[in-house]
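User: Please predict the structure of the protein below. I'd like the answer in structure-token form so I can feed it into my own downstream comparison script.

Assistant: Understood. Taking the following sequence of 240 residues as input:
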Amino acid sequence: MKKYFNINFEFNHQKLEEIVEQTANNKKGYCCFIDLNSLVHAYKNEDFMEVLNNAFVNSCDGSYIAMSASKIHKENLKQYIGPEFFEKFIFKPGKHVILGSTPRVYKKIIERVELEGGDKNKLSYLELPFKAVNEFDYISISDTINTIEPNYIWVSLGAPKQEYFMSKLLPFINKGVLLGVGAAINYFSGEIKNIPTWVKKMNLVWVFRAVNEPKKQLKRIPVALSVLPKILKDEKEKLK
């Protein structure tokens, strides 16, 4: 990985996939899908920055991050968003556990996996109570996970909560990768309208999300705009 905006990113999609798959089969760790909201939060909170940089690998889940990093570093960097990754890796061999979301969404995931020729029997679900990140019973949660012995543990709690959650749960699990994919599960299940290919190609995913999740996304935009100029300025000055 290489640091962009003070955070470790792996922009090579093939390498990212290889790292995740190898870790899932042999080790343990957590992987973050970092969007602009997470980047801004990291700049305002050093503890969160540390959580992100302690991940064994991070993907860029923000088109504006990839576009800005490409321009500043004069590289051709592409985002690899959570929904796209989840749609591919949920069919990977091995056991999968979904943490968070709702039983209804999990049922829809089961139905789609089966419809597309996947093995629904490799999927498990653990509903999490609505609590602050410091209030979870991580030992109890890990006991359930360790009984299943999964390779992939999909965490859908929203950023930055899911990243803190993964960092706190990691010491208690025996194996597998924790993947903080947030709303990717809802996109796959159809709870949220899927992102069209042309939107991804034009780097308009953030616009699409704002339109489809206005209550959640629109309140983040003013915060991002207030911090973004400093983030870009710091990155440019590092190269001088």
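That's the full token string. The beta strands are 2-4, 7-9, 28-34, 57-60, 96-100, 123-126, 152-156, 176-180.
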